[in-house]
Each structure stands twice: as structure tokens, then as C-alpha cells.
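Hey L., structure's done. Input below.
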Amino acid sequence: MKRWFAILALWSVAWAAPALTLYDQLAPTLDQVRSLQNSNPARALELLSKAEDDFRKGASELAPVLREGVQQSLADARQALARRSNTDLEARIQIIKAIMGKALYDNYFSALAAGNSADASRLLPKVLSASGLPNSLQAQAQTLAAANNLDGLRRLFERTYAQGITNALQRAQAQTSAVQAYLEATRAYALYLIVQDSPRAQGLTAKGFVDALGKLSSGNLNGFKTDVQALVTQAQNFLKAASAPQSQRRSNPTTTAQNPPAAGGVRLEAPRTPPAPREATPARAAAAQPAARPVVPATPKPAPAPRPVQAAAPTPTPTTDAYQQLLGDLRFLIKDNRKLERIADSLSGAGIYSIDDWKRALLEVRGRLLEAQAQAETGQSDTARRTLAQVNARYKTAVQPLVEALRPELAQRTSRVFALAENAVGLRTSDFTVLSGELLENGLALEGQSLGAFHDVQVWLLQTILGIPRAFLFILAGMLAFFPLYLLTLTFGGRNIYWRFLGLAFFFLLLPAMMEGLSYIGSILSDSRYGRLPFLGVLTNLSIQQNLVAQLFWGLTVFLVIIFATIGLRGIAAQFGLLQNQRTPLRRAQRPTVPTAAATAGTSAAKPNPGLTSETIVEWDEEF
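Output:
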């Protein structure tokens, strides 16, 4: 039993390293993005892209649910930055830090349970930083940790979080500005994400926070305040439960309260979030982000909050024109009212408020796909794969809901082929051509049109051979190409120059296959999941499917094959006596005369045999 406990403890502590490293990478970068969003948006966007790349490189050992939550929030932050929405960006940053704070919080208690005080000491300041808690809490936490009072330490944190949630909600309730109320409510929601799996916080739910934010986004300030008051009551109950003396709770002991939860995870419900507001400014508000799908309680997933836009006026205007416009556009395509509302909620959650917005989102996805294609073309396979992951995430939130309602099999196929491409090795530019065609097929779904059966065949082939199967096929072909060349040299590698020309023709004919196989070897060895030799990524440029230079070189080899094969086959045909040497043309006499019998006989005798030429008067055994 002790052995299994030791193994479990080591596994739990192992999560600390990636979470701690990722937080150290993300937090300062996100702070820079926040400070540069107005003065230098281009630099801020560059830093945000760097944060996405750093996270994807180091998040492989993080809990999958947390990883997906951060990735989606980073993508939302990019959109907020592009829209110049300071409020939305600030909310995204709070959610990202809260998710990382959840991982750090769980790892901290796992390290204490395993007796690893060194890791716990390193994690504690980061937990406080990610949650925005006061540094004075560190001394109290260290005292309780030194006494091995984990339950008291957990209640200390829960009291602090419950007080922070209560204070933030009360500030949101007192605000007259929709923007400030939104930020305060988001602050409370972020704190709740860290401790929501506590049994003492059962009265609070993610749906309650998202519903309140949704009412604020739609301009329903009274409904927002009513919901916030209910949340304040539940937060106060949470605070009372966490502040109750331990003796009052011994009659009903809870295992979860005594032991740290499983590493990673935020348990959420899946509420339907309303659209974001349109306030006094002409800018359209981004929509409420739908919550995550229900997951296993041990590794739950955070749901992003609605995304507001900064208000020019202190009081929001209660209008729902954008949402009603979206419903009006969708009624021409979807007749089922329940499905219509569900699709409208999903699209508004991605900032889509009309069919034109949807088409622009589709163009945006296709543009990012071209970016991934350029990265793959230059041998940056890992970067291309990360860009594809962002493309896939944006497709699922902004494009897929509508396509799924019109052509569900197409939506599933597109999602599946993008997932395969995201994880495939040896991506080629021809793959992106098929993916771009698949996105165009999604766009044509609105008009009831299609690219036809040939595109369907291409997508099916791409799903069948993409990745390792295709790489193995071309590597095998490149290796087998040497065998006929060896046999040709072994059999006809003598003095006959024409067979040498044929050998060169065979070589240039098979050279593209060798280059293709070598390019896939480079793709595999340069991939961070396999060979981890990035300098070999240059070999991917040898692929005919990859760039124009390789295609033109293949065209040159075709001409060389034609030239060398013509020279060699003509020589061999002449040696077989199939070609005559017409060196002496037949001359006509100046005056026609009646030939005599003797002249005719002499001419017949002097005429050379048409089957014999100077090139055929050789010995076959000597040449072959």
C-alpha cells in the first residue's frame, strides 16, 4: 500500500514542473500584452503569438482539459486584441491565469501530501500570484504547511477565495458602468474556477456566473444585479462553511476536504450562454463564450465567460438587435426553432451576429490556413501544426455550428480531417490545398452547392494516407528505386554506351521517388515528437509536393529522361538493324534513258543490302 502511495505521490508532483514553467512563461508575456495593447498593438499581437507557441510547446504534460481551456482562451485573447477590446482582453487574461492557478493550486497540495516541501515552497508564491491574493497569506500558509495541517491550510485558502469572490461580486453589484461590472464579475468567476471542486462551494456554479454575465452583456442590468445578489448569498455561505470550526464538521467528514483533489481540472456545467451586449458604441460586442462540455469530475474544464466590448457610456443600452438579426438570417436556413436558437447561441458565442460575419470568419480561417501552408512549405512543421490547431479551434467555434445544422456529415468530416492534419507528420502544401477546398465546401453548404465527387475522393484519400502511412509509402518507394538501377548496372554496365544512356534515363526517372523518400525521412526526424532534429527540416524542400522549385526540377528530370532514353534506344535499335544509314542519297539521272539489261544487272549488284549498315557490321556477342 505504501508503495502505491509513493508512486501516486511522485506522479502528482510530476505535474508541478510543467505547470510552474508554463506559468513563468505565460504570466509576464500576458502582462506585456496588456500594457502594449493600445500603444503598440502589433507588438502585443506578436507577444501573444509567442505565448501561444510557448504554451503549446510546453503543455504536453499538462492535463488535457486545462490545456484545451488555455488554448481556447489564448485564441479568444487574440480576437479581442484584433478588435481592440481592452475589456475583453483583460477578461481573457484573468481566465488564463485562473486556469493556470487551478493547476498550481492542485499541484501545491499534491506536493505537500507527498512530503515534497521544496516543490511546495516554489509553488506557493505562484499560486498567490496567479490568483491575485495578498502576499501576507504566504506566511500563514507556510506555518500551517510546516505543522502538516493540510485541512487547515485548505480552509485558509478557501476562506480567502470565498472572501475574494464575495468582495468582487459586491463591487460588481455596486457598479454603474457595465464594463467595470463585467470585469469585477469576471474576477469573481476566475477565483471560483480555482476552488469550485471544494465540497463547501457546492452552492456556487459556473452556470450562475455565466448567466449573470450574459444578462449584463445583453443590457439587462436589473437581472444582472439580481443574479449577482444570489451569487453573493452563495459566496457568503461558502465563506461561512470554510470559516466554521473544524469540530463542527467532524460529524460529517468529507474525503475531498481532507485529501487534495486529482491533479488538474475544473469542474463545470454546460450552460447556454446568451449573446454579448451592443452598447452605445457602434462596435459590435463579442458574444458569450459557451461553456465546455461536461467532463469527468477529476479533470473538469473551464468555460470562458462572455466577452463584452468597452462601453462609451456609463450605462449599457438594453438592445438585442444583433442577436435578432442573427436569428432572422438563420431562419432562412434552419426551420426548427430549437435548433435555430441553439445555433444562434453557439454562433453569437463566437462573435458571429450575421451570415456576413460567418462568411468573414470562414475567410479568416482560410487565411490562417494559408499561413500554416507557408510555414509547412519552409520546413517549419511544428509551427505549422500549432497554427493548424488554432485554425481547427476557430473552425469549431465560429464555422462548424452552422454547417453542422445544414450538412452534419460535412461538419464531422471537416473536423475530422483538420484533427488528422493537426497531428500528422510530413505535411505537404498539397494537403493544404485539399483543406482549403474543404473549407470552400463548407461555404458552399449555405447555397446548397458542392465541389463534386472528385473533391470527396481527395478528402477520403487524405484521411486514409495522411501522416505515417504516406511517409512510409514514399520512403519505401525511394529505397526500392535503387534496386532496378543496381540490376541495370550489373547486367548492362559493360562497354555499350547506349545501355549507359538508358541507365541514366532510368536514374533520372527514379530520382524524384528517391527525393520524395528522403524528404519524408527529413520530416520525421525533424518532428519534435519523433527525431527531434529540427535542422533536418530542410530536407522537406526536396518534395515535389512541397514547393515550385522541386516541381520545376522534376520537369527537368523528365526532359533528361526523354533525351537519354532517345539516344540509348536509337543506338540499340540501330544495332538491331531496325534503322538504316541513309548516307548516300539516290541521285536521279539528268536524261532519262532506257536501261540495258547489263546496266540493270550491274546496278542491282552494286546496290547495298538495306538490312546492313555500317553500324550493324559488328559482332553481337562482342557488344552485348
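Residues 497-526 form the longest helix (30 residues). The radius of gyration is 36 Å.

-- N.
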